[in-house]
Write a sequence for this structure.
Protein backbone atom coordinates (compact mmCIF):
# COMPACT_ATOMS: atom_id res chain seq x y z
CA UNK A 1 0.00 0.00 0.00
CA UNK A 2 1.37 3.41 -0.95
CA UNK A 3 1.08 6.10 1.70
CA UNK A 4 0.84 9.87 1.11
CA UNK A 5 4.21 11.64 0.97
CA UNK A 6 5.65 12.22 4.44
CA UNK A 7 3.63 9.48 6.16
CA UNK A 8 5.51 6.48 7.55
CA UNK A 9 4.15 2.95 7.56
CA UNK A 10 3.35 1.94 11.13
CA UNK A 11 5.83 -0.51 12.59
CA UNK A 12 4.19 -3.89 13.17
CA UNK A 13 5.42 -7.33 14.17
CA UNK A 14 3.22 -10.40 13.97
CA UNK A 15 4.90 -13.59 15.15
CA UNK A 16 2.65 -15.58 12.80
CA UNK A 17 4.05 -13.66 9.80
CA UNK A 18 7.43 -12.26 10.88
CA UNK A 19 8.73 -15.11 13.03
CA UNK A 20 9.14 -15.80 16.74
CA UNK A 21 10.32 -12.93 18.92
CA UNK A 22 13.55 -13.56 20.85
CA UNK A 23 13.54 -15.08 24.32
CA UNK A 24 17.14 -13.97 24.98
CA UNK A 25 17.56 -10.79 27.02
CA UNK A 26 21.08 -10.30 25.65
CA UNK A 27 19.88 -10.60 22.03
CA UNK A 28 16.33 -9.22 21.71
CA UNK A 29 14.53 -9.02 18.38
CA UNK A 30 15.41 -5.65 16.82
CA UNK A 31 12.24 -3.90 15.69
CA UNK A 32 13.83 -0.58 14.73
CA UNK A 33 12.40 2.91 15.23
CA UNK A 34 8.76 3.22 16.25
CA UNK A 35 6.60 5.14 13.79
CA UNK A 36 4.54 8.14 14.85
CA UNK A 37 1.23 6.89 16.24
CA UNK A 38 0.48 3.17 16.60
CA UNK A 39 3.02 0.32 16.45
CA UNK A 40 1.38 -3.09 16.92
CA UNK A 41 3.20 -6.16 18.27
CA UNK A 42 1.27 -9.45 18.14
CA UNK A 43 2.42 -12.82 19.42
CA UNK A 44 2.15 -15.76 21.78
CA UNK A 45 4.04 -16.24 25.04
CA UNK A 46 4.13 -18.67 27.94
CA UNK A 47 3.41 -22.37 27.60
CA UNK A 48 0.31 -24.50 27.48
CA UNK A 49 -0.54 -25.64 31.03
CA UNK A 50 2.71 -24.11 32.28
CA UNK A 51 4.76 -26.95 30.79
CA UNK A 52 8.34 -26.03 29.85
CA UNK A 53 9.83 -24.56 27.85
CA UNK A 54 8.27 -21.19 28.69
CA UNK A 55 8.33 -18.77 25.76
CA UNK A 56 9.35 -15.23 26.66
CA UNK A 57 9.01 -12.45 24.07
CA UNK A 58 11.73 -9.78 24.11
CA UNK A 59 12.18 -6.96 21.63
CA UNK A 60 14.25 -3.82 21.23
CA UNK A 61 12.97 -0.55 19.78
CA UNK A 62 13.98 3.07 19.38
CA UNK A 63 11.92 6.18 20.01
CA UNK A 64 13.03 8.83 17.54
CA UNK A 65 14.28 12.26 18.64
CA UNK A 66 11.35 14.64 18.99
CA UNK A 67 8.95 11.89 20.14
CA UNK A 68 7.71 10.36 23.40
CA UNK A 69 6.31 6.90 24.08
CA UNK A 70 2.91 7.92 25.46
CA UNK A 71 1.16 4.56 25.61
CA UNK A 72 1.67 0.80 25.72
CA UNK A 73 -1.91 -0.32 25.12
CA UNK A 74 -3.02 -3.90 25.60
CA UNK A 75 -5.44 -4.37 22.70
CA UNK A 76 -5.73 -8.15 22.82
CA UNK A 77 -5.10 -10.77 25.51
CA UNK A 78 -6.47 -14.31 25.66
CA UNK A 79 -5.34 -17.45 27.43
CA UNK A 80 -5.36 -20.87 25.82
CA UNK A 81 -7.00 -22.38 28.91
CA UNK A 82 -9.55 -19.59 29.36
CA UNK A 83 -8.41 -19.15 32.97
CA UNK A 84 -8.77 -15.74 34.62
CA UNK A 85 -6.21 -16.31 37.37
CA UNK A 86 -3.03 -15.88 35.40
CA UNK A 87 -0.56 -13.05 35.79
CA UNK A 88 1.83 -11.97 33.09
CA UNK A 89 5.10 -10.20 33.79
CA UNK A 90 6.53 -7.26 31.84
CA UNK A 91 9.68 -5.23 32.15
CA UNK A 92 11.42 -2.44 30.29
CA UNK A 93 15.08 -1.45 30.33
CA UNK A 94 17.22 1.27 28.80
CA UNK A 95 19.48 0.11 25.98
CA UNK A 96 19.86 -2.89 23.73
CA UNK A 97 19.42 -5.70 26.26
CA UNK A 98 17.58 -6.62 29.46
CA UNK A 99 18.81 -8.62 32.44
CA UNK A 100 16.39 -11.50 32.96
CA UNK A 101 17.78 -12.46 36.36
CA UNK A 102 18.06 -9.07 38.12
CA UNK A 103 14.87 -6.96 38.12
CA UNK A 104 16.64 -4.15 39.99
CA UNK A 105 18.47 -3.35 36.73
CA UNK A 106 15.21 -2.71 34.87
CA UNK A 107 13.82 0.74 34.28
CA UNK A 108 10.52 -0.68 35.54
CA UNK A 109 8.68 -3.99 35.88
CA UNK A 110 5.15 -5.08 36.77
CA UNK A 111 2.66 -7.91 36.74
CA UNK A 112 -0.49 -7.56 34.74
CA UNK A 113 -3.54 -9.79 34.88
CA UNK A 114 -7.10 -9.91 36.11
CA UNK A 115 -6.53 -7.93 39.32
CA UNK A 116 -4.43 -5.22 37.68
CA UNK A 117 -6.20 -4.44 34.42
CA UNK A 118 -9.27 -6.58 33.86
CA UNK A 119 -7.39 -9.44 32.17
CA UNK A 120 -7.79 -8.70 28.51
CA UNK A 121 -10.07 -5.71 28.45
CA UNK A 122 -8.86 -3.75 25.47
CA UNK A 123 -6.86 -0.52 25.54
CA UNK A 124 -5.45 -1.03 29.02
CA UNK A 125 -2.43 1.25 29.39
CA UNK A 126 0.49 -0.95 30.42
CA UNK A 127 2.78 2.11 30.34
CA UNK A 128 0.73 3.52 33.22
CA UNK A 129 1.29 0.31 35.23
CA UNK A 130 5.04 0.58 34.62
CA UNK A 131 5.02 4.30 35.47
CA UNK A 132 3.32 3.65 38.83
CA UNK A 133 6.60 2.25 40.04
CA UNK A 134 8.56 -0.93 39.62
CA UNK A 135 7.15 -3.84 41.62
CA UNK A 136 10.45 -5.70 41.80
CA UNK A 137 13.10 -3.04 42.44
CA UNK A 138 13.70 -1.34 39.10
CA UNK A 139 14.93 2.26 39.02
CA UNK A 140 11.59 3.71 37.85
CA UNK A 141 10.64 6.56 35.53
CA UNK A 142 8.16 9.43 35.54
CA UNK A 143 5.77 10.21 32.73
CA UNK A 144 6.07 9.30 29.07
CA UNK A 145 9.35 7.75 27.93
CA UNK A 146 11.59 10.16 26.00
CA UNK A 147 13.50 9.39 22.82
CA UNK A 148 16.07 6.63 23.16
CA UNK A 149 16.66 2.91 22.85
CA UNK A 150 14.69 0.44 25.01
CA UNK A 151 14.18 -3.30 25.46
CA UNK A 152 10.78 -4.73 26.42
CA UNK A 153 10.21 -8.21 27.93
CA UNK A 154 6.94 -10.06 28.53
CA UNK A 155 6.53 -13.48 30.14
CA UNK A 156 3.74 -15.76 31.33
CA UNK A 157 4.50 -18.66 33.64
CA UNK A 158 1.31 -20.70 33.86
CA UNK A 159 -0.51 -20.58 30.51
CA UNK A 160 -0.15 -19.83 26.84
CA UNK A 161 -1.18 -16.24 26.10
CA UNK A 162 -2.04 -14.63 22.75
CA UNK A 163 -1.54 -10.88 22.90
CA UNK A 164 -1.55 -7.68 20.87
CA UNK A 165 0.22 -4.63 22.28
CA UNK A 166 0.17 -1.18 20.70
CA UNK A 167 3.17 1.09 21.37
CA UNK A 168 2.01 4.69 20.78
CA UNK A 169 4.43 7.53 20.07
CA UNK A 170 3.53 11.21 20.04
CA UNK A 171 5.57 14.24 18.93
CA UNK A 172 7.05 16.32 21.72
CA UNK A 173 5.00 19.54 21.89
CA UNK A 174 6.69 22.52 20.27
CA UNK A 175 6.26 25.82 22.14
CA UNK A 176 4.10 28.37 20.35
CA UNK A 177 6.02 31.28 18.73
CA UNK A 178 4.53 33.72 21.27
CA UNK A 179 5.85 31.59 24.16
CA UNK A 180 9.34 31.52 22.65
CA UNK A 181 9.31 35.30 22.22
CA UNK A 182 8.18 35.77 25.82
CA UNK A 183 11.03 33.51 27.02
CA UNK A 184 13.49 35.54 24.95
CA UNK A 185 12.26 38.85 26.39
CA UNK A 186 12.43 37.43 29.94
CA UNK A 187 16.00 36.24 29.26
CA UNK A 188 17.05 39.69 28.02
CA UNK A 189 15.46 41.31 31.06
CA UNK A 190 17.40 38.96 33.38
CA UNK A 191 20.68 39.73 31.58
CA UNK A 192 20.05 43.48 31.81
CA UNK A 193 19.16 43.18 35.50
CA UNK A 194 22.44 41.38 36.29
CA UNK A 195 24.50 44.24 34.85
Amino acid sequence: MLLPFGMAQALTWDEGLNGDLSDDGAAPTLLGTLSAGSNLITGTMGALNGAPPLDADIWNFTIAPGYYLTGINLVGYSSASGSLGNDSFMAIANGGSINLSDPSQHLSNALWGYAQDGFGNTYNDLLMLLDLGPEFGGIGFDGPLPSGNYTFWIQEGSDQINYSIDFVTTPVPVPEPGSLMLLGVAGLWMLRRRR
